[in-house]
Amino acid sequence: MEGIVTPAQAGRPRWILPFAAFAVLFFVAAEVIGFSVSPAERDMGHLQKIMYVHVPAAWMALLAYGFVFVLSVLYLWKRQERHDLLAASAAETGVMFNALALALGSIWGRPTWDEWWVWDARLTSTAVLLVIFAGYLALRSYTEDPERRARWSAAVGILGFLNAYIVYMSVRWWNTLHQLQSTPETVDSGYKLGLRLNAFAFLFIMIVFIALRYRAAKLERLAEARLEEVALGDPRVQHV
After folding, report:
1. CATH (domain of 111)
2. Domain count of the chain?
3. Residues 130-153: pLDDT tens digits?
4. Positive or negative, the Cα torsion across 86, 92, 94, 97?
5. 162-175, pLDDT tens digit by residue?
6. What is the pTM of this model?
């Protein structure tokens, strides 16, 4: 019936559900392998294995914000709505991973530093990054005009990503409690496999979240367009 936005109008990529199932299974397998294969760390014991979720969550947050930066630049250049909607979808996903990384880091820090939170350069800059992109999402929710919302969001997305570089380099620029960046090449060989597998697991999950949120964003935009047509009295739109 006319005037109603259906899921088909926003497109339903056939790969999403199978890929989502694969991502969940891969994540479970990565966690099992990571926790069962790697040894207990000398000082922290098995607590150290929180690295398998904390570190990939932080990586995915930075990667998602990187997508926001690229898509924001593309929007300002080409003014295509899909770039704006994809950027917003990546920002929401990034905020989720950002908050998860901070929460997991706090859980890890309590027994390690004897504090839930310290005003460490890495922690503080990561918290600032979360606030910036939470503000990005708030800006979008309070700006009704789609074009203005897209332009303002793109500007915030580009400027906000600059702080991501500060987050990454903070442990090198300042004397912090937080250790240097962890990668499969810098950790002990016993933890490499688990970290690599979990990095891919989080990557697959991030792709699923962005794809699903993008589809929802297209539905929301279609609904907005229909409401605008109704408000303007477009005769082609029938009231239900």
Report:
1. 1.20.120
2. 1
3. 999 999 999 998 888 889 999 999
4. negative
5. 888 887 776 666 66
6. 0.83
